[in-house]
């Protein structure tokens, strides 16, 4: 009972925290904050503790409300720490700026959105955010996700900088993506060097030593050099992370037999490439790759069964001598019209058309090279149905989840009591007060252990709500 009461109080505090973060986030988004997207997956090993053994799965990132809560409060803290540092050390602070992208960087995003009838206004971050929020296909949630990924690709890199730099004005300090006039990195649990620098700035700004507290801080010129190195290493770390994920993806599929059904995947067309093929995205495994419908020898891919939607679809490669044609068709001369890819059968009106956001089935092959290591290679395997639209979440889902958590805690507490009675052959009613208090503490501590059954039950409940 005491445990349930404590957990109820904690739940109330967390709900309050969520409401506060939601209010902060809403105000920031109204100012033009962007909600962008990217493909992220994590690797699950046979032995998760040592991260070794067989690769069991590639898990796509799952966005939970608590992720948004934590992220928003971190952004909020970073913003106010940036303000404090700049106020105290106007020429020696380490902040992070995000320049606005060039207008032409949004050309592909505009064209892709137009193919679905959406208009993208990228004049300001606020108009871009509004456009992305409106570009929703109720029948296919992947459309908006891909448009947000294209917006991410259009962005410039955020950069660390010294506020004493002669090349920047205070208007240049702003963060375009977050819609904040000042921002820095301060809250990272991995303690990047930028965070360490800002920690020192903040400590100096609240120190009682007056001007002496700043003696150990970087000068503006030295901080400029440090920021250049951090920006370079940050970019290198991103590339290393991308290469690491690509390697694990290749290793995961290399474990499968050539005709394993797991090699046949549903994908969505996210870009047309000239008149030879297109780029697809396999969201389930975070894969993005090229598909050719016309090879360098002139042979053309033709789907012999367009009605079947499983891996039995037959794709035949027609030789150049058979006269099959592939062309990029644009209904008008307007450069903003994306068009589609059309494969024509000679002597017939029969055509196969590939449009942006069409769903296809691809086959994943793994190729090895002494020069490039193992890489994935995708080939067209047929057509696929678009995903079924998910029903809107019920308004009382949160209430149901809270009730489920409380029930799970009580069941966990009851099972532990029974187990302890069996092991010690002692009835709980015979325990003295100190033993009961100690037992409650043990239960409370075990429930907060990520290895406990409670945590597993919580995840099962969350999964059941999806």
UniProtKB/TrEMBL annotation:
Ranges for domain RNB: 2-208
Domain of life: Eukaryota
Keyword flag ATP-binding: no
Composition-biased stretches (Acidic residues): 426-435
InterPro entries: NA-bd_OB-fold (IPR012340), RNase_II/R (IPR001900), RNase_II/R_CS (IPR022966), RNR_Ribonuclease (IPR050180)
Spans traversing the lipid bilayer: none
Family annotation (SMART domains): RNB (SM00955)
Cofactor dependence: Mg(2+)
Chloroplast as UniProt keyword: no
Disordered: annotated span: 410-439
Matches recorded under SUPFAM superfamilies: Nucleic acid-binding proteins (SSF50249)
Keywords assigned: Magnesium
Name used for this protein in its record: DIS3-like exonuclease 1
Organism: Cichlidogyrus casuarinus
């Amino acid at each position: 009972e005491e445990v349930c009461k404590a957990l109820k109080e904690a739940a109330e505090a967390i709900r309050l925290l969520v409401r506060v973060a939601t209010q902060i986030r809403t105000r920031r988004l109204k100012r033009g904050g962007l909600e962008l997207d990217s493909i992220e997956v994590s690797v699950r090993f046979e032995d998760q503790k040592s991260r070794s053994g067989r690769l069991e799965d590639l898990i796509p990132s799952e966005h939970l409300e608590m992720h948004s809560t934590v992220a928003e409060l971190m952004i909020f803290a970073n913003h106010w720490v940036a303000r404090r540092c700049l106020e105290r050390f106007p020429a020696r602070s380490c902040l992070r700026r995000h320049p606005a992208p060039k207008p032409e960087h949004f050309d592909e995003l505009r064209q892709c959105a137009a193919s679905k009838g959406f208009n993208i206004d990228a004049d300001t971050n606020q108009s871009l955010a509004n456009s992305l929020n409106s570009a929703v296909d109720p029948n296919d949630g992947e459309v908006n996700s891909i448009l947000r990924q294209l917006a991410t690709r259009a962005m410039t890199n955020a950069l660390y900088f010294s506020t004493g730099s002669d090349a920047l004005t205070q208007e240049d300090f702003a963060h375009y993506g977050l819609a904040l006039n000042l921002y820095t990195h301060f809250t990272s649990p991995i303690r990047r060097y930028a965070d360490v620098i800002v920690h020192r700035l903040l400590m100096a700004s609240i120190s009682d030593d007056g001007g002496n507290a700043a003696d150990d801080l970087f000068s503006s010129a030295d901080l400029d050099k440090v920021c250049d190195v951090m920006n370079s290493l940050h970019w290198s770390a991103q590339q290393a992370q991308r290469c690491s994920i690509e390697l694990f993806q290749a290793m995961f599929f290399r474990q499968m037999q050539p005709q394993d059904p797991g090699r046949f995947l549903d994908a969505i067309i996210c870009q047309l490439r000239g008149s030879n093929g297109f780029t697809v995205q396999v969201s389930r495994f975070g894969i993005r790759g090229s598909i050719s419908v016309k090879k360098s020898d002139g042979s053309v891919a033709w789907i012999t069964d367009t009605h079947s939607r499983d891996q039995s679809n037959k794709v035949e490669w027609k030789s150049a001598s058979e006269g099959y044609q592939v062309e990029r068709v644009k209904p008008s001369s307007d450069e903003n019209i994306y068009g589609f890819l059309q494969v024509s059968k000679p002597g017939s009106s029969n055509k196969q058309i590939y449009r942006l956001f069409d769903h296809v089935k691809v086959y994943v092959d793994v190729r090895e090279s002494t020069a490039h290591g193992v890489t994935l290679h995708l080939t067209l395997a047929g057509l696929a149905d678009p995903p079924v639209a998910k029903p809107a979440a019920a308004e009382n889902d949160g209430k149901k989840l809270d009730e489920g958590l409380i029930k799970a805690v009580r069941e966990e507490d009851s099972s532990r009591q029974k187990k302890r009675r069996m092991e010690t052959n002692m009835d709980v009613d015979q325990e003295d007060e100190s033993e009961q208090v100690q037992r409650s503490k043990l239960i409370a501590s075990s429930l907060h252990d990520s290895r406990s059954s409670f945590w597993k039950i919580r995840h099962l409940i969350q999964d059941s709500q999806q």
